[in-house]
Amino acid sequence: MGMNVTQKLISDHLVSGDMKQGEEIGLKIDQTLTQDATGTLVMLELEAMGIDQVKTEVSAQYVDHNLIQEDHKNPDDHLFLQSATQRFGIHFSKAGNGVSHPVHMQRLGKPGKTLLGSDSHTCAAGSLGMLAIGAGGMEVAMAAAGKPFYVKMPQVWGVKLTGDLPDWVSAKDVILELLRRHDVKGGSGKIIEYYGPGVKKLSAMDRHVIANMGAELGATTSVFPSDENVKDFLRAEERGDDWTALETDADATYDIDEEINMSELEPLIAKPSSPGNVVPVREVAGEPVYQTYIGSSANPGYRDFAIVAQIVKGRTIAEGVSLDVNPSSRQTLSDLIKTENLFHLIDSGGRLHQAGCNGCIGMGQAPATGRNSLRTVPRNFPGRSGTREDSVFLCSPEVAAAAALTGKITDPRDLDMDYPTVDIPEPTINNDLLDEPLPLEQARQVTIEKGPNIASIPDFDRLPDELEIPVGLKVDDNISTDEILAGGGRVLPYRSNLPEISKFTFEKVDESYYDRAMDLKEQGGHAIIGGSNYGQGSSREHAALAPRFLGLRFVIAKDIARIHWQNLPNFGVLPLTFVNDADHDKIKHGDVLKLTNLRQSIQQSNKINVEVNGKETIEAQHALSDRQIEIMLEGGLINWVKKGEVTN
User: Fold this and answer.
1) Is the pTM of this model over 0.85?
2) How far, in Å, CA of 507 to CA of 528, rounded?
3) Does domain 268-414 have CATH number 3.30.499.10?
4) Any idea where the Aconitase A/isopropylmalate dehydratase small subunit swivel domain is (predicted)?
């Protein structure tokens, strides 16, 4: 029997385990990606491990998140990152070059390769026929050091695309349709592979849009074939020699089968405050709009900006509406300038911001309280925009442009114009903007620059044999890492200063958590009770590290999102799930939970008895591999590395 693209990629990089669903497998990683909100910790971790130079084929560090320089913290950290990349042999992309995912796709992505990134939207590189996975920074540091990446073998979910996109419908509507059908947990434990005749109708950048938001489904990653469309993309980027064909065999099968007839799609929109809250645009048409925002890693291509420019060309946006233009890369911005599409955006009343993540991560462009913001970004978790009580909708560039012109949510098919056509120019390429790694001997002479905001990661103790601690916080379903530890201009400048950034932990959920956790820390720590899909969203390991710093010892949830589940034991937090979900309702804030004979218990069984208030016992379970159990016993991955138990 033939193999699908996912199976070929995994088979080519498998170093341990078998390709059996649910079994832990080890994968050789060819490339790594870090960005400045997560990369500072990765560089500190590489330094702590005594790495001379990275062992990957390609590693790249991007500065795209923390671009607002209101004091010394962000620029100091950018200098730290630049010096660290010079020391460790890593490509460096400075502020202004753009968002990591499209820039990596343009300059470094390569079909048939594996990519591990400390950003959950690393999966966007699946558009090139790569196996690209988001993970916590510690795992990326380990991969950069030449160690395998471990993940449980997912199911392969084959999505057959047929038909062609109608006018006013674009790639964003394909992924919104999957979210409409399956919600934010639909891809959990799965790799989504797109195939079929409809794939040929999608450019490489269209595929990027779809692959990027596979993260919003909770998928391990998304995969497209490497075909003539990918070849055309790489040729235009002057990297034609990097292309290799990679397609599904004719007799390949999938664990799950689904079909989307793109010809039947209509403009879709995700209502506040979840990417899975998707409805047709016509159902919410007429709602007033304060802001429309185009850009981000979820709609990063030249077409995604140019189509808006052509829609608003010669027109003026509605009174009271802010059209925010957030170029995804310097290259895309240059192309918009030379084709005059940037002129059309600005002439219509649009506001130009620098190339980067910007408002997507709450770094500027926050909407007014109680006003609707339509955005082409991937996420609309509560407060992610930077406004606490925000009302953010996710949509395509076409829907954002229509709202900018009318001042209200509008089905773009109702605009009084023909659907514009967009011609893609030959891209403007300047390879000198991406710093190349230094030769080894030169790199060894580099001194890593550390500003006053950088604090080393503290030592954490090993897993004790008994824990008797209170529930410090109880939360419901779909708590995101943005709610555990927010991004944005207030918080992210402290990404390299754990004591300071921990002060923001869970502030969107319970403002008293930090003070309470600090008090409980002196008494042995605390536990957290979670609902379903606990820790969805961003890969930021701070969402595990900061609570651990505040004394978190274990989490019991109905289920835990993949990346956060992997991050927790990396920092010595035991991730448990209820055997019986109804037990979630039996535990309340302040209850005292007791775990005994813990070190032996997690080695002998996946079941753990949890005594509640000395009266009732409930059953929890863990899904840790033998390797993860060893890490957990040592109190985290850093301790495990220091002990010298890392093997290939």
Assistant:
1) yes
2) 15
3) yes
4) 510-580
